[in-house]
């Protein structure tokens, strides 16, 4: 009898800017336009080099949604020599490739043209659906309109971009909303076949936010949603949980397939109060299951060549690195 396999990737987390046009009721990531709100190119390069030295294979590039809509941001990023955040992200992804790490960008809402551009320098991309429900926490966040997010996930499929999406639990949605969200994701994947994994992520209250006093979901509630995801999603879509936000070892038995990107170097900038477990600790979390490292692009998409020729050499090289490390 074969043991279950639980996968993870070794990454570095690079928040290119914390400026965001959304005003979500649960977020502490967003900051105003001030000096230091952009991660400078030299710091990006230092982090990439340090991550490569630690064996990281994924560079998670993220930033606030549509920062150019915030007063002063365009002038500030121009002082770095870039016209906009997408161009900056593209150039930093190229730096990741040169350092020997595959970029994965999660940048909020992008047009199909912007995604096509970033596809040239990304092995995979992502956007959390969060919920299909209209909730008060998203009242001042135009980018959290479910229809807008669904359209982007569909456009990623049209472009054959290996993709990550997910649910954020406890932000005002109901169990039926969660079911509907999973059904929507399943339907998109059946049409386009590009969704690698669905994250079941629990909301964690943050001091100083409008939802600071709201209690996040407990393990039983998270487990129930994981089981629902396993029932609704196609079998080739992995169910992922972040191992730093909940009792991951308890949740493995609920049907978890993947522990996501875990960094030996950088913090979780979205949930800075929750440190990553050490890579060695992941074996304890996996329990009796086999823990296996992976790239940010899943094997079936490598076989299909769902990537740009620019990054083929690095993908195939890192595939061999992972195989040697896990053999």
What would you note in describing this structure?
With 327 residues, this protein is an alpha/beta fold. It starts with a strand and ends with a helix. It is globular. α5 (146-158) links the parallel β4 (124-126) and β5. The mean pLDDT is 95. It has one domain (5-326): TIM Barrel (Alpha-Beta Barrel). Strands 1, 2, 3, 4, 5, 6, 7, 8 and 9 form a nine-stranded parallel β-sheet that branches. It contains eleven helices and nine strands. It has helices spanning 41-53, 73-78, 85-99, 112-119, 146-158, 175-192, 219-232, 248-251, 281-286, 299-304, 312-326; strands at residues 5-17, 58-63, 102-106, 124-126, 163-169, 195-202, 238-240, 258-262, 290-293. Helices cover 36% and strands 17% of the residues. α1 runs parallel beside α3 (85-99) and α6 (175-192) runs parallel beside α7 (219-232).
């Amino acid at each position: 009898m074969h043991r279950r396999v639980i996968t993870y990737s070794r990454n570095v987390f690079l928040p290119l800017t914390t400026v965001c046009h959304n005003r979500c009721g649960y977020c502490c990531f967003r900051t105003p336009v001030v000096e230091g709100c952009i991660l400078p190119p030299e710091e990006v390069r230092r982090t990439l080099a340090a991550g490569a030295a630690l064996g990281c294979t994924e560079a998670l590039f993220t930033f606030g949604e549509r920062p150019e809509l915030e007063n002063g941001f365009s002038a500030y990023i121009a002082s770095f020599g870039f016209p906009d955040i997408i161009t900056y992200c593209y150039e930093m992804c190229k730096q990741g490739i040169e350092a020997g790490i595959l970029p994965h960008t999660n940048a909020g809402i992008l047009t199909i043209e912007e995604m096509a551009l970033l596809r040239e320098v990304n092995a995979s991309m992502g956007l959390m659906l969060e919920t299909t429900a209209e909730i008060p926490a998203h009242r001042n966040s135009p980018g959290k309109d479910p229809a807008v997010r669904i359209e982007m996930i569909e456009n990623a499929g049209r472009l054959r971009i290996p993709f990550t999406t997910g649910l954020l639990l406890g932000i005002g949605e109901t169990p039926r909303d969660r079911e509907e969200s999973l059904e929507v994701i399943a339907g998109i994947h059946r049409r386009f076949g590009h969704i690698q994994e669905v994250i079941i992520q629990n909301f964690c209250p943050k001091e100083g936010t409008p939802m600071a006093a709201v209690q996040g979901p407990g393990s039983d509630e998270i487990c129930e949603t994981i089981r629902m995801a396993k029932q609704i999603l196609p079998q080739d879509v992995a169910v992922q949980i972040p191992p730093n936000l909940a009792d991951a070892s308890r949740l493995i038995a609920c049907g978890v397939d993947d522990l996501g990107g875990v960094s030996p170097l950088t913090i979780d900038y979205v949930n800075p109060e929750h440190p990553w477990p050490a890579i060695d600790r992941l074996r304890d979390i996996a329990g009796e299951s086999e823990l296996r490292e992976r790239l940010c692009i899943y094997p079936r998409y490598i076989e299909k060549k769902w990537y740009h020729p620019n990054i083929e050499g690095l993908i195939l090289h890192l595939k061999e690195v992972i195989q040697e490390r896990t053999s």
